[in-house]
Amino acid sequence: QVQLVESGGGLVQAGGSLKLSCTASGVFLSLKTVDWYRQAPGAQRELVASISSGGNINYADFVKGRFTISSDYAKSTVYLQMNSLKPEDTAVYYCSLEHGRQITRYWGQGTQVTVSS
């Protein structure tokens, strides 16, 4: 049973920082591409950053230079360091990966990030 648990969200002022964690169980995280998504109220879920098992990293244009994705496979955890936060970064942040023969996409429960102006 794959489980993803996010943590680290909270309320921060604009310009501040937060570090999100996504801890996985039931899957070898080192073999997977792990994605961070976010969803603001009334908006569609959007991809923020990805890190592959081979170390390839991609960022959405709107977070480049501000967010950093990293991994600690010994802890089965992927992180999202968020700096220079803006009010428009306010959203629920989810980590996600695909697993299994039927390529099922798994999601965590999400962690709320609120950036005040």
Summed up:
The protein is mainly beta and 117 residues long.
Blueprint of the fold:
Blueprint: E1 3-7, E2 10-13, E3 18-25, E4 34-39, E5 46-51, E6 57-59, E7 67-72, E8 77-82, E9 91-99, E10 104-107, E11 111-116
Parallel strand pairs: 2-11
Antiparallel strand pairs: 1-3, 3-8, 4-5, 4-9, 5-6, 7-8, 9-10, 9-11
The ordered string of helix (H) and strand (E) elements is EEEEEEEEEEE
What is the strand content?
Answer: over 45%
Counting helices, strands and paired strands, the structural category is: mainly beta
Q: Which descriptor suits the 3D outline?
A: globular
Q: Outline the biggest β-sheet.
A: 7 strands, mixed
Poorly predicted regions: none
Overall average pLDDT: 96
Distance between the termini: 40 Å
Share of helical residues: under 10%
> How many β-strands, per DSSP?
11
Explain what this protein looks like in three dimensions.
Strand 7 and strand 8 (77-82) form a beta hairpin. This protein has no helices and 11 strands. With 117 residues, the protein is mainly beta. The mean pLDDT is 96. Helix content is 0%, strand content 54%.
